[in-house]
Amino acid sequence: MSDDTLKHINSLVPSVAQKAYRLVLAARQAGIPMVLTSGRRSTLQQFGLWARGRFTSGRVVTNTITRSRHLSGRAFDFLVVGFHPDRYSGLYTAIGRAGERLGLQWGGRWRTLKDKVHFQG
């Protein structure tokens, strides 16, 4: 497991950290190299993401500043690395379902602004 992934896991509250760790291990055992790209965020970091697509270039990636579970260490984002982009959708769905089985809420199920790389607990 990469140092960055462990750093992000360690930034989470213990109950979510445990599930994130189990999810990364399960994905890797299934041959899916999953890494965490974000865990707990500061309000300033969250505001910077919220500003994307609104005040800075890029697409909108979040609808919240102060209600994000990243602020309390109850959310994390991930990526799958090393696969052709055509396979990503199925891999993210598989990881999403695995996370849900662990008791996490997967952003890929949201009605608006689906966030396939996000989990919260």
Describe the structure.
The chain has 121 residues and is α+β, with helices and mostly antiparallel strands. The protein has one domain (3-120): Muramoyl-pentapeptide Carboxypeptidase, domain 2 (2-Layer Sandwich), CATH 3.30.1380.10. It is 41% helix and 13% strand. It is built from four helices and four strands. It has helices spanning 3-10, 14-29, 43-51, 85-101, and strands spanning 34-38, 75-80, 105-106, 118-120. Strands 1-2-4-3 form a four-stranded antiparallel sheet. It is globular. It starts with a helix and ends with a strand. The model has no long low-confidence stretch (mean pLDDT 91).
List keywords for this structure.
4-stranded antiparallel beta sheet; 121 residues; alpha+beta; globular; Muramoyl-pentapeptide Carboxypeptidase, domain 2
Secondary structure elements and their pairing?
Elements: H1 3-10, H2 14-29, E1 34-38, H3 43-51, E2 75-80, H4 85-101, E3 105-106, E4 118-120
Antiparallel strand pairs: 1-2, 2-4, 3-4
**Intertermini distance:** 21 Å
Provide a count of the helices. Answer: 4
- Class in CATH? Alpha Beta
Shape: globular
Q: Helix fraction?
A: 40-55%
Tell me the domain tally.
1
Q: Please tell me how large the radius of gyration is.
A: 14 Å
Total DSSP E strands: 4
| CATH architecture verdict | 2-Layer Sandwich
Strand percent estimate: 5-15%
The main sheet orders its strands as: 1-2-4-3
Averaging pLDDT over every residue, what do you get?
Answer: 91
In terms of structural class, how would the helical and strand content be classed? alpha+beta
In the predicted model, the low-confidence regions spanning at least 5 consecutive residues are: none
What is the H/E order? Answer: HHEHEHEE
Describe the main β-sheet briefly: 4 strands, antiparallel
